[in-house]
Specification:
170 residues; Cytochrome Bc1 Complex, Chain D, domain 2; 50% helix; mainly alpha
C-alpha cells in the first residue's frame, strides 16, 4: 500500500514538474508563439481594404505573368525613402509572420515550418533579379503563397525595395 502511495505521489510530482518546465519554456521562448500574434485577435484594427485596381477585371493576372516573363517590367526598383517605409509596412502585414523581422525565416509562424521559410538575406535571394522576386511574391514558390491577388503591384515593388535595403545593410 505504501509503495502504491509512494509511486502515485512520485508520478504526481513528476507530472507537475514537467508541466512547470513546459510552461516556463513556453513563456520565455525567444520568438514568441502563434497564439500571441495580433492575427489571433481579429477586429482590434480595421480590416485591410483592397485599393481600387488590385483585382484585375481584364485577365490582368495572365497578362502580367506573360509580361514579366518577357521582362517588360522594370528590372530594378527605384527605392526612395518613402517607398522603403511603405515596403516595411507591407512586409509587416504580408511577410513578417513567416520570414521574420530580420529576414531570417524565423517569424512567429515560419518557425513552425520544416524546412524554414527562405532567408531573404541569403546569397540565393540577393542574387535574384528584382523581376524574379516580383514573380515569386506574385505567384508564390514552394510553400510561399501567391500574393498577386492580395497585394497591389506598388506594394509588391515596395516590399522588394524594403528587402533590398535590409540586404544592403547586412
Amino acid at each position: 500500500m505504501k509503495r502504491m502511495l509512494f509511486l502515485g505521489l512520485f508520478a504526481s510530482i513528476a507530472l507537475i514538474g514537467i508541466y512547470t518546465l513546459i510552461t516556463f519554456y513556453d513563456d520565455h521562448m525567444e520568438l514568441g508563439r502563434m497564439r500571441e500574434t495580433p492575427a489571433v485577435r481579429p477586429h482590434e484594427e480595421p480590416l485591410l481594404i483592397m485599393e481600387k485596381g488590385t483585382v484585375p477585371l481584364d485577365g490582368g493576372g495572365i497578362l502580367l505573368k506573360e509580361s514579366l516573363k518577357k521582362s517588360s517590367f522594370p528590372l530594378s526598383v527605384q527605392a526612395s525613402k518613402s517607398q522603403i517605409e511603405f515596403g516595411k509596412k507591407e512586409y509587416d502585414v504580408f511577410c513578417k509572420q513567416c520570414h521574420g523581422i530580420n529576414l531570417d525565416g524565423l517569424g512567429t509562424v515560419g518557425q513552425s515550418f520544416h524546412p524554414l521559410p527562405t532567408k531573404l538575406d541569403s546569397q540565393e535571394v540577393i542574387q535574384m533579379t528584382d523581376n524574379d522576386l516580383f514573380m515569386t511574391i506574385s505567384y508564390g514558390k514552394k510553400k510561399s503563397p501567391a500574393l498577386a491577388s492580395s497585394m497591389s503591384k506598388e506594394s509588391r515593388w515596395a516590399v522588394i525595395a524594403y528587402i533590398r535595403s535590409k540586404q544592403n545593410r547586412q
